[in-house]
Amino acid sequence: MESLVGSTLAGYTLRAKVGEGGTSTVYRAEHADHGTVAVKVLREKLRHDKTAVQRFLREAQFGQRVQHPNIVRTIDFGQAENDRYYLAIDWASGQLLEKYAEQHGPLPPEEVADIMRQLCAAVQAAHDVGIVHRDLKPENVMYDPASHHVMLLDFGIAADTEASPDQRLTRAGFFVGTLMYVAPEALSGELVGPGADQYSLATIAYFLLSGALPYVGKTPRELFSQLLTQPPTPLNRARPGLAFTDAIETVIMKALAKAPGDRYPGVTEFAAALAAAVAQGGEPAVAPPAPVAAAPAPRPAATAAPATPPPSADDEKSGGLFGKMKGLFRR
Question: What is the pLDDT of residues 20-50, one digit of tens each?
């Protein structure tokens, strides 16, 4: 794999490679005015790939369009003097939420409600300007346990709900996202609305609360089928011996409804309902004696896959900013 460590790109001195995906490499960099930042560089072989360049620039433009304290700020982007495309963003402290949850989960409901409050506020800011994220998952969230601050990353496969069909970069009949967290309606390959992000957020909350996922298919094909044909595993059946109040379970399962119209009106309403349910307290429901197995399926990377069960690794790929980069910003 190529490495630009030690070189300077548009005034950013690339100090260390901290992650890489199929379309780009991410570096920790220093800048005279901006200090320590993260710089994403499009791979040399894709420099003349019109679709890859459009995706890269669109991601940068979305990052500048959405301004919120819980979204990593886009500082700068463009084409450097050596014709390499780059994107500079703030360096985020903490660790990936996925890693934190794996180390410390299941998390207390109070902590989960606070994380979701911040994350939903960030996603609502995107929805307010017509952007659907489409790849919400713990790998795309930074969490600082010391400050309890959440930062949303990666608008690499986000969509503009007002874009015309000829402006879209995903082929008709293909869905984008990560199968473990994608909403059922996305599997049709049609452009999804804000409700799909709510479903993904509810899946994140389910995972943080239980350490499990609503569906336990062991292969992408099996998981695809379950998403289309089966209800999600109730939260109180997620893991043996783990129980939540009826109020908490009701909120999570409503946001996981298969039909977007059966979910909350928006992501902030979902966050508010979860906070209210947690604040109610009360005795947890009794966990059933024979819960569904909680072992999660393998974690597929963010992909664009056909709207029939994914047949092979040759499906169209859509890499997000940090989707495959474990522990990306840990220092």
Answer: 777 889 899 999 999 999 999 999 889 889 8
The helix or strand, by DSSP H or E, that contains position 62, with its residue range, turns out to be helix 50-65
What DSSP state is assigned to residue 244?
-
Task: Give pairs for 231-235: CB < 8 Å, separation 24+.
Answer: 231/258, 232/206, 232/256, 233/292, 235/206, 235/209, 235/210
Contact 291, 239 (CB under 8 A): yes
Q: Which of 135, 154, 160, 314 is catalytic?
A: 135
* Domains contained in the chain, CATH given: 8-90 (3.30.200.20), 95-306 (1.10.510.10)
This prediction has a pTM of 0.81
Measured between alpha carbons, how far is residue 287 from residues 80, 235, 291 in Å?
57, 10, 8
Residue indicated by tokens 């360049």: 53
Single out the residue of 145, 116, 100 nearest to residue 327, CA to CA: 100
Reply yes or no on whether 135 is catalytic.
yes
pLDDT digits (tens, 9 = 90+) for 212-238: 999 988 898 999 899 999 999 999 999
Nearest partner of 175 among 242, 145, 220, 140, judged by Cα: 220
Average pLDDT over residues 83-100: 92
